[in-house]
Each structure stands twice: as structure tokens, then as C-alpha cells.
């Protein structure tokens, strides 16, 4: 019989979201009349905007005629889309990129997982705690870790606690690492890195010969003027960083699937015999062999996000979500609950009142306020004592949820 990849058995068996669902259904069975409000989801709720939908439809219609039909496209995405992204999303930040450095893909979850293909297993990896679970689990899957300990950390991976003390911007690892995952604006904490903080990371990566894997999936939610949207706003970042972006949260593409990865040509690694080699070339090779590009109508739809009309429509929805975030943040604060994030990201990271554990707070919130959120401990041991609320909901529900929390905890 064929041997399985035993590394998969080291993984914690998808515990967080199934457990949340189990507790919700237990509650709703016992309380069928309770109107439960879900602020736990990490998915958007608003549909595609009209300008995007129009371009999407046009793309589909083109597929109906031999003259305008599109078969296999470039594995790297169409140049016209890469150029629009460069012009509209990077140039205004003062960042110059070539289309050969932009790789269009089916999403940044996929890319942030697939990127491990181009790095040797011997590389030491540092990830945040709490963290977007993909970074951790994909490293376990490829065999870069040992077993998980009681705390929830895997042997062989380096964890960087993101805590209230360090403002949820982790301190540099004390041992030499080769790959550093950073996600700003952060999921789950909703916090951001300032230009100075990001510069310190870039300087550190250059000094220690490390590569930063920068997840900017939430950059469109930044509202404060001086917060960087791209790591390439920092001098030297092209020598040390790969950036992931996504249309998922920005433009409601979670079910449509489109993202992009920037691998600068200046970014080099070393071969087994100590020669320098381009990661851009490796990623290009990887994509050409293992990926066949994003559907043509999807790329048309993605391009429409950056039309004047499309961007105005998309921005309106982002603003709506961010107003939800403000309602949650201000409501919780008024109830005496300490919270973080929610200013430049659609997530609020609250400190559980009265020192409750994340799961105790989950149960209390569900049973007494009929509100569902996500226990912080599910994102890593340093998330214990915290709780994530998402702003991707309907205003009315958000307001009702906040009202119920205020009535319960407000003084
Ligand atoms: C939602 C999310 C993404 C987006 O993933 P897609 O595959 O593009 O949908 C990436 N990173 C983080 C941290 C996210 O929360």
C-alpha cells in the first residue's frame, strides 16, 4: 500500500470552526427562538459591485464566440491585468514593479501555501502567534516541523508572540531564521505595522539574510494615512520580501477567486553550492508547471475593480464594513471591554472581560447575548484571553449585537 504523508497526522484535526458550529447548533436546538448573530465569519457578505459584475458578464460572453474565445492564458496572468495593478495599486504608493514580477493567481491562501515549493526544507521559519493558520499548517504539511506540544506549538518552527505588550507587532526572533511570515493589517488581531515598524523588519531581514512573506490581504481596509499598504513602500524590501494580495476581502472575490503575488527580480536566495539564484525565476517555473492561470472572465472582473467606477463602488462597501468595525469598537469600549484593531482592518480583537478564557467568553456571549465570535485561542496559544469579532456583517445585526453586549457588560 502507498505510504501517506505522515506530516498531516501531526496537524490538530480542524478543531476551531467545527467546534464553534457544534456549540452553535447545540445552543439553537435548546433555544430555537433565539436570534443568533454571527460575527465570527472571516468572509464578506456583500455581493459583487455592478462595474465588476458587468466586466465579469462581458468576459463570459466573449467565451461564446470563436473570435473572442480565450483558452489557456498565461500562467502568470494576463499582462494587461498585471499592468493595471501596477499602475493603480502600486504606483500611487511610489512602488515601481515590472509585470514579470506580478503573478496573478486564484487567491492568496493558495499562494501563501504554494510558495513553500521554492524554499528548501532546511529553512527555519518564524510565524506569529496568534496567526492565520495557513502559515503554520502548510509548514507542518511539508515536513518542516516535529510534533505539536501541549501549548499548541510545533517543534522546529519559531513562534513570535503578538501580545498587548508589543502592540501585536512581534519582536525579532532570538535565533537565526530564514523565512518570516508577516500579515498586516493582521488577521486575527486587526492591528497594523507603522512605517517605522515595517522598516525595522526589512532592515532585520536584510541584515540576517531572511525572506519576509508579507500577507497584505487586508491593505484596502487601511484608513489611517501613514500606514503602509505594501512592504515595498519600505526601502530595500524588494531585496527581501514577497508580497501576497487578494481580491477576496477587497472586492468580494472570496467565491470568485483572484489574488496576486509579487516576487521582485532583486530577491535572491542561495543554491546548495552557495551561488545566488532568483526566486522570481523559481516561482515562474513553479506556476508554469503546477498552475494554468485564472479564468479569463475572472481576470476581466478583477481589472474592473480598478476602473474609476469599480473602485468607487468597491470603496463604498469597504467603508460600510469599516463603519461596522467602528460601531463594534466604540460599543465594546463603552461597555468597558478593552479592544484592539478595527481601525485599519475589519477585525476587532477584544480582551475577554473578567479574565475569562476565550472559550468561556464564547459560551457566555452565545448564551447570554446570542452573539457568535471566534475564540482567540483558536489562532494560537498567545490568543488565549482574546476574542475576534468580524465587521463583515449587516449594520442592523452589528448594532443589535453591540446593544446586547452593552446591556450585559455595560456599567
Ligand atoms: C482572507 C485571507 C486571505 C485571502 O485568501 P484568498 O485565498 O485570497 O481568498 C489571505 N490571508 C489572510 C490572512 C486572510 O485572512
Model description:
This protein is of the alpha/beta class and 411 residues long. The protein has two domains: 6-47 and 309-409, Alpha-Beta Complex (Aspartate Aminotransferase, domain 1); 52-307, Aspartate Aminotransferase, domain 2. It is built from twelve helices and 15 strands. It has helices at residues 16-30, 50-62, 79-90, 108-114, 133-141, 195-208, 248-251, 279-290, 296-305, 308-334, 358-369, 395-409, and strands spanning 37-38, 102-105, 125-129, 158-161, 179-183, 211-215, 241-246, 259-262, 268-270, 276-278, 339-341, 347-351, 371-372, 374-375, 386-390. The strands form four sheets. It has a seven-stranded mixed β-sheet with strand order 2-8-7-6-5-3-4, with helices on both faces. A four-stranded antiparallel β-sheet has the order 11-12-15-14. It has a two-stranded parallel ribbon with strand order 1-13. α2 (50-62) runs antiparallel to α9 (296-305) and α10 (308-334) packs parallel to α12. The longest helix has 27 residues, at 308-334. The model has no long low-confidence stretch (mean pLDDT 97). The structure holds pyridoxal-5'-phosphate. Pyridoxal-5'-phosphate binds at residues 42, 107-110, 132, 183, 187, 215, 217, 246, 248-249, 254, 259. Residues 42, 107-110, 132, 183, 187, 215, 217, 246, 248-249, 254, 259 line the site of pyridoxal-5'-phosphate.
Amino acid at each position: 500500500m502507498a505510504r501517506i504523508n505522515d506530516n498531516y497526522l501531526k496537524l490538530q484535526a480542524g478543531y476551531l470552526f467545527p467546534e464553534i458550529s457544534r456549540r452553535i447548533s447545540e445552543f439553537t436546538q435548546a433555544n430555537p427562538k433565539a436570534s443568533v448573530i454571527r460575527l465570527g465569519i472571516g468572509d464578506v457578505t456583500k455581493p459583487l459591485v455592478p462595474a465588476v459584475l458587468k466586466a465579469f458578464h462581458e468576459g463570459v460572453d466573449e467565451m461564446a464566440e470563436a473570435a473572442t474565445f480565450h483558452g489557456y492564458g498565461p500562467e502568470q496572468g494576463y499582462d494587461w491585468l498585471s499592468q493595471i495593478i501596477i499602475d493603480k495599486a502600486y504606483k500611487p504608493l511610489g512602488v515601481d514593479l515590472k509585470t514579470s514580477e506580478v503573478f496573478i493567481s486564484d487567491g492568496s491562501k493558495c499562494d501563501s501555501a504554494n510558495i513553500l515549493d521554492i524554499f528548501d526544507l532546511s529553512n527555519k521559519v518564524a510565524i506569529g502567534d496568534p496567526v492565520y493558520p495557513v502559515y503554520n499548517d502548510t509548514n507542518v504539511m511539508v515536513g518542516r516541523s516535529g510534533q505539536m506540544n501541549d501549548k499548541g506549538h510545533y517543534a522546529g518552527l519559531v513562534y513570535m508572540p503578538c501580545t498587548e505588550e508589543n502592540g501585536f507587532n512581534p519582536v525579532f526572533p532570538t535565533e537565526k531564521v530564514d523565512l518570516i511570515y508577516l500579515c498586516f493589517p493582521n488577521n486575527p488581531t486587526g492591528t497594523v505595522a507603522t512605517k517605522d515598524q515595517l522598516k525595522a523588519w526589512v532592515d532585520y531581514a536584510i541584515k540576517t539574510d531572511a525572506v519576509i512573506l508579507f500577507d497584505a490581504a487586508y491593505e484596502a481596509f487601511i484608513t489611517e494615512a501613514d500606514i503602509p499598504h505594501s512592504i515595498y513602500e519600505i526601502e530595500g524590501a524588494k531585496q527581501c520580501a514577497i508580497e501576497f494580495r487578494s481580491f477576496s476581502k477587497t472586492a468580494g472575490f472570496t467565491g470568485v477567486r483572484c489574488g496576486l503575488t509579487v516576487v521582485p527580480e532583486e530577491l535572491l536566495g542561495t543554491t546548495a553550492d552557495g551561488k545566488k539564484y532568483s526566486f522570481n525565476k523559481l516561482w515562474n517555473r513553479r506556476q508554469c508547471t503546477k498552475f494554468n492561470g485564472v479564468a479569463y472572465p475572472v481576470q476581466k472582473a478583477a481589472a474592473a475593480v480598478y476602473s474609476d467606477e469599480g473602485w468607487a463602488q468597491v470603496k463604498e462597501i469597504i467603508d460600510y464594513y469599516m463603519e461596522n468595525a467602528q460601531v463594534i469598537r466604540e460599543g465594546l469600549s463603552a461597555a468597558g471591554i478593552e479592544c484592539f484593531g478595527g481601525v485599519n482592518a475589519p477585525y476587532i480583537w477584544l480582551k475577554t472581560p473578567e479574565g475569562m478564557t476565550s472559550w468561556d467568553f464564547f459560551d457566555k456571549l452565545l448564551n447570554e447575548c446570542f452573539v457568535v465570535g471566534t475564540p482567540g485561542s483558536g489562532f494560537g496559544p498567545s490568543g488565549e484571553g482574546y476574542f475576534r469579532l468580524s465587521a463583515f456583517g449587516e449594520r442592523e445585526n452589528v448594532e443589535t449585537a453591540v446593544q446586547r453586549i452593552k446591556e450585559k457588560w455595560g456599567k
